[in-house]
Amino acid sequence: MADYKDFLDIRDRTREELLATLEFARNMKTDLKAGKGSTALAGKTLAMVFQKPSTRTRISFEVGMWQLGGYALYLAPADIGLGKRESVADIARVLARYNDGIMARVFEHEHVLELGRWSDVPVINGLTDYNHPCQVLADLLTILEHKGTVEDIKVAFVGDGNNLSHSWLNAAGRLEFDLSLAIPEGYDPDATTYSEAAAANPGVTLTRDPREAVEDADVIYTDTWTSMGQEEEAERRREAFAGFTVNAELTGLARDDVIVMHCLPAHRGEEITDEIMDGPHSVVFDEAENRMHAQKAVLVELMGR
Ligand code: CP
Ligand code: NVA
């Protein structure tokens, strides 16, 4: 029996556990497409706490729970007042009395850790200002499908040193793939997260030059320049990230069979062009679909016990 209760960070799992979850997700997806869906969570409920907007996270968890025979409750930003109307610890204990699991999208990473500490039922991180582990798990599933492996490949991350870059660094610290980050000065990832990944994996590098990062890349990954909560900085960020657009020229410097990924929502014309989003290298909609398949594996692992 695995010794984890929650899924708050890619680093909550060993390499072997991550690979096993990906294999489980892939098998469940294949079975579902063959008309053999699982009802492993029949009668179980998931409380979904949102402090920020969402399309993919909400829908993939809600539909995923329904497919597994369970039910998911959507709790909008105004409903719970996490840490404002009521303390995080009290909310964790109350939700755990009604539900078999909690999924939370919050601003402060500490809040999701606190939910995990106080809840008796599993807690899943649906994005914080620090990381987005469910997204990177779905991304790895997508890479596995398209490349046949998540190791011995090169991933180029072009963009902001924010939550997605942190989960990518966390993944590179666990799995054997090269991760080349191209990030403008002033927008670097958290220094400890970077150095921990670089110490575990000599293939982790950071450059200011997107052209250098994408050379020989099997995967080019990007994310918005302005994350949720940073809207007031949008103009300044557009200037700082000039030259970091994933366009045809940049994509042309990678391997011929490179796949281009974006967690979405995309700001077309900023971090990625229409031509690339809608072109032959793009796997962004497979990636969006895989949010559900990857998370169903996590839900069954954590709540199906
Ligand atoms: N990628 C992602 O988490 O999308 P949402 O913000 O729409 O949930
Ligand atoms: N970095 C983005 C990811 C959205 C899924 C944000 O935090 O808004």
| Distinct small molecules | phosphoric acid mono(formamide)ester, norvaline
Structural class comes to alpha/beta
The arrangement of helices and strands along the chain is HEHEHHEHEHEHEHEHEHHEHH
Query: What is the average of the pLDDT values?
Result: 97
The tally of domains stands at 2
Stretches where pLDDT is under 50 for at least 5 consecutive residues are: none
Portion in beta strands: 5-15%
Identify the strand order in the major beta sheet: 7-6-5-8-9
Task: Could you tell me the CATH topology label of the largest domain.
Answer: Rossmann fold
Helix content: 40-55%
The general outline is globular
The CATH architecture of the largest domain can be named as: 3-Layer(aba) Sandwich
Looking at CATH, the homologous superfamily of the largest domain is Aspartate/ornithine carbamoyltransferase
Report the oligomer.
single chain
Report the span from N to C terminus: 10 Å
Number of helices: 13
CATH class of the largest domain: Alpha Beta
Q: What's the arrangement of secondary structure elements?
A:
Layout: H1 15-33, E1 45-50, H2 56-67, E2 71-75, H3 77-80, H4 88-98, E3 101-105, H5 109-118, E4 123-125, H6 133-147, E5 154-158, H7 163-172, E6 178-182, H8 191-200, E7 204-207, H9 210-214, E8 219-222, H10 234-240, H11 248-251, E9 259-262, H12 274-277, H13 284-303
Parallel strand pairs: 1-2, 1-3, 3-4, 5-6, 5-8, 6-7, 8-9
Helix pairs in contact: 1-6, 1-13, 2-13, 4-5, 6-13, 7-8
The structure holds phosphoric acid mono(formamide)ester and norvaline.
